[in-house]
Amino acid sequence: MWQWQQIEKLLKLRPPEPNYYLNIPRVMYMPLMQDQGPGDHLAQLGPVLYACAAHVTEGSFEKTDISLSQIKSLTSIVDGPLQRLSLIIADSLARRLLCPIQGFAGALIHPSDYFEQSVLQTARCNLANLSPYISTGFVTINRAILEAMEDEKVVHIIDLSCSTSHPRQWIKLLRDFHGRQGGPPEVRLTVVHDNNGFLADMRSLLSKEADMLKIPFQFNSVIGRLETLDFNNLRNTLNIKYGEAIAISCSLQMHRLLVVDDNMSCSGIGQLQKMANIAQLKKMASLVYSPTSTLNYPQTPSPQCQTPKLLASFLNAIRALKPNIMLVMEQDANHNALLFCDRFVEALNYYAALFDSLHAVIAANPRMADECARVERMILGEEIKNILVCEGVHRHERHERLSQWAMHMNRSGFDHVPLSFRAIWEGNQKLMSSRLNGCHNKVENDCLLLCWGSTHLYSISAWRPHKGTTSGSREQMIVQPQSQIIWADN
């Protein structure tokens, strides 16, 4: 099985030094050595990818063509996670090079238009089935909801996870409510999703489970996506009733509300940023033998000085609902940087880790290889394309780190709720059940980070409206004492 520590060694780069704007690294034009083994060929992938990104930023068709040919040659040696990722990145870079051509950007087809909806939905579900991190998120979120609703008689759960929604999460929660001391509450579940067939199947499955458990249950469906909801009428849209306790779960969706028109390519500042992009990417391509990994590349904060209007409107509407608790799971990555070179570095590191983790899952379950291939192409591949190809309002995969989400939530009138010891412990048990040595989690500021090797992949945090402005149906939430914990690898 491919070890993530080896991939970290293969991506050997360090951040550029100041004033590197005139030097052209010789390694970019170094021919591939034909007598090398697969490992040596793979070691060249990182520098060639950075060189290709620099050529794309320069707008050089000739140099980009050479780099793309090198990438194709290197990825043909052997099949592996970094090779498959490199092909997706190469495709994205080629698209970015062509985007300035008049009419090309508008001709790009959204995956929802060329993937059959049933196949796309299957791929979405397969990601949740394959990834130990998403399953861990479901377990942790469910435990936090159970604790927040400990004494409630009528519970309304609002699932805003849209394409990430999975009936398995709520089946488990219904079973946990069934075993609650004092009996289960009346449960109402509202799910927002853009696939009517998926919602119908989910309604049927959960209703049967609730009947079997003898839990009063009502399923409400809302057709749409998070970014298309009417935030001025959210109470009616979600069918909120007076006196019910509200729990909100939002997994891997809120980053889509960070969209802003930050396309500055026509401005003088945009030209300076282009020069910085080229310089940094060329420097990274040249440093094949640097002892420092790209994973130590300094993190560039999000350019947002203020919370974007769309996200602010959403959080204001959520705060007005007075939820007992809101759970947020997000990709813990800085894919919202304004500079393309920063996004490229972050995307290469982040998705190399994510692809490697899925490769480890398949090594343990070879029968799921076809499902994994579809997830890589249809879900993760389209995310990467959006991050690397699109700008401005067309770039909606704007993942941010936990610290940035804390800033947005605090500015919008939410207090952080520490995850309880039990919620973290149960999440850790679920993650360790995957038996993948690279999987581990750690606690940061009473939130949970899910990791592969040294790379943070997902964050899970809990929130509630500021006291004194809005509150849930109880005066104070019951949260178990929280200690700082770092779970060791299993």
Oligomer classification? single chain
User: What structural class should be given to the helix and strand makeup?
Assistant: alpha/beta
Shape descriptor reads globular
Q: Can you give the mean pLDDT?
A: 82
Give helix % range. 40-55%
Count every beta strand, where a strand is a DSSP E run of 2 or more residues.
9
Q: Give the percentage of residues in beta strands.
A: 5-15%
Helix and strand run: HHHHHHHHHEHEHEHEHHEHHHEHEEE
Biggest sheet overview: 9 strands, mixed
Distance linking N and C termini = 17 Å
Radius of gyration: 23 Å
Number of helices: 18
Poorly predicted parts: 6-39, 264-269, 288-304, 470-490
Region (SAW): 389-464
Organism: Urochloa decumbens
Motif (VHIID): 155-159
Protein name: Scarecrow-like protein 3
Write structural notes for this entry.
There is one protein chain. This protein is an alpha/beta fold and 490 residues long. It contains 18 helices and nine strands. The chain has helices at residues 4-10, 38-43, 45-58, 61-75, 81-98, 104-107, 111-114, 117-130, 132-148, 167-178, 196-213, 234-237, 268-286, 309-320, 340-364, 369-389, 402-411, 421-432; strands spanning 154-159, 186-193, 217-223, 245-251, 325-331, 414-417, 439-444, 447-452, 455-465. Strands 1, 2, 3, 4, 5, 6, 7, 8 and 9 form a nine-stranded mixed beta sheet that branches. Strand 8 and strand 9 form a beta hairpin. Helix 8 crosses helix 16 (369-389). 44% of the residues are buried. Mean pLDDT is 82; it is low at 6-39, 264-269, 288-304 and 470-490. Belongs to the GRAS family. This is Scarecrow-like protein 3. InterPro entries: TF_GRAS (IPR005202). Residues 389-464 are annotated as: SAW. It comes from Urochloa decumbens.
